[in-house]
């Protein structure tokens, strides 16, 4: 992901959920979701009005060497235990219901938590990857995160078991002392393991971007839920929808970088708004 410029100051017209539904009615929806959708599942977001400032590890920092990798994996290992217990909320379930009803064609998510699939959505493109998968930076082997979790547990028994930590959207936590944490390597080649997610400063794979554009060819309107659209990885698709002349509705508390392009913005929670849309279209 590239560095994140500040949001613009122009706001889209505020509309109700009913008015948003009117703007999108009769069209096949492409949905783009962000961290704000998962807050009701107990996963905090990075840029919400009440979110404390955080500095996630960048890709360049991660690949700089074992010290940074030890810091990342120690914090992520503790956070995974908390993130892994998160469950889909009614907003996730509403989008799955809208897919089943034929309203939602494709769901693009910036989240790595896997909650859309857990809720029953199938046409999901994981734009930033999945935290439940791990990739070796040397041989490219992909394995499940749960297997790695068990290996890290065995290498670091009782590590930070009673630490008072705060979980971040990518499963990381705030944990100061990581010096005693032991890393484990790829079982195939002994290489460095990384979660199969897009770090800050890392590009979304081109094949994945192309997959989104191809999916948008069969859409007709864009619904954004819970994203500030601060990073270009998501904003590019809002811009593409605008070029196609699509209605664009953004559901988010607070302004977003996509507001100047939107047909309307619903200043409300994702869960309540998406549930209302599902009740209207999927009933």
Strand content: 5-15%
Count all strands and give the number.
9
Q: According to CATH, what is the class of the largest domain?
A: Alpha Beta
Per DSSP, the total helix count is 9
Q: Report the span from N to C terminus.
A: 38 Å
| Count of structural domains | 2
Oligomer: single chain
Task: Compute the average pLDDT.
Answer: 88
Going by CATH, the architecture of the largest domain would be 3-Layer(aba) Sandwich
CATH fold descriptor of the largest domain: Rossmann fold
For CATH, the homologous superfamily of the largest domain is named as TPP-binding domain
* Share of helix, binned: 25-40%
Coarse morphology: elongated
Runs with pLDDT <50, length 5+? 1-9
Order of helices and strands: HEHHHEHEEEHEHEHEEH
Major sheet: size, sense and barrel closure? 6 strands, parallel
Secondary structure category: alpha/beta
Descriptive report:
This protein is an alpha/beta fold and 283 residues long. It has 2 domains: 164 residues, Rossmann fold, CATH 3.40.50.1220; 104 residues, 2-Layer Sandwich (SIR2/SIRT2 'Small Domain'). It is 33% helix and 15% strand. The protein has 9 helices and 9 strands. It has a 6-stranded parallel β-sheet, sandwiched between helices. The chain has a 3-stranded antiparallel β-sheet with strand order 5-4-6. Helix 8 links the parallel strand 7 and strand 8. The chain is elongated.
